[in-house]
Amino acid sequence: MTNNHPDRYALSFTSGGLLLVEAQRTVALWNPLQDWDLVRAELMESNTLQQRTIQSRRTVSREVVGRLSELTPAELLLLGESSPQERAHMAWVAACRRYTLVAEFAEEVVRERFLLLTPSLERGEFDVFLRGKALWHPELDALTETTRRKLRQNLFRMLREAELVSDGGEIVNVILSPQVEALLDLRHPSDVRFFPTSTEVRV
After folding, report:
1. CA separation (Å) from 58 to 42, 43, 67, 143?
2. Which of 4-18, 54-68, 69-83, 95-109 has the lowest mean pLDDT?
3. What's the longest Cα–Cα distance across the chain?
4. Of 51, 80, 142, 180, whose CA is between 20 and 30 Å from 200?
5. Which of 38, 8, 44 is nearest to 143 (CA)?
6. Which long-range contacts link 141-147 to residues 24+ away (Cβ below 8 Å)?
7. Burial level of 160, CB count in 10 A (0-12/13-18/19+)?
8. pLDDT tens by residue, 109-130
């Protein structure tokens, strides 16, 4: 992304949190099918995600498949068969890869505040962050207050569900498992950068 011609932010993460239960059920379908189009069709046909309406079934299926398709087969295997904490960490990584805005907030605000020994995270930090990004992303200026509030609420919900931020707003020192860290280090730069941790980010 460049400041002269930035890509527009995808901003559809307005509800659902990390979708941990939905992700685990979807991975269970992906393992035998190995095809995301087939997985989405099965999610719609069988209502595996247990949504009440066709529209919500379509929306949630599209969202969870969109996020999980950002993960490698090895990462999907880990998400499906690992500990609850590892699953939450991989679901957070999937959200960061899917949404550049989430990834940048994770790295530029959450991780940076942790490294600067500023342990708390107020909701207002998101508003400051959005105003700064709006200089290069006019689509952010066009957001209604309702949409801004939904984005903020769901982002902080994801942070809590991933156990990166406590219910009281304290940034948590995350200890990644060796399995998660090894997978994240396969990226350049390492996706460890999405976490508040003192672990060095490999480039």
Report:
1. 11, 8, 14, 24
2. 4-18
3. 49
4. 80
5. 8
6. 143/11, 147/11, 147/14
7. middle
8. 999 999 999 999 999 999 999 9
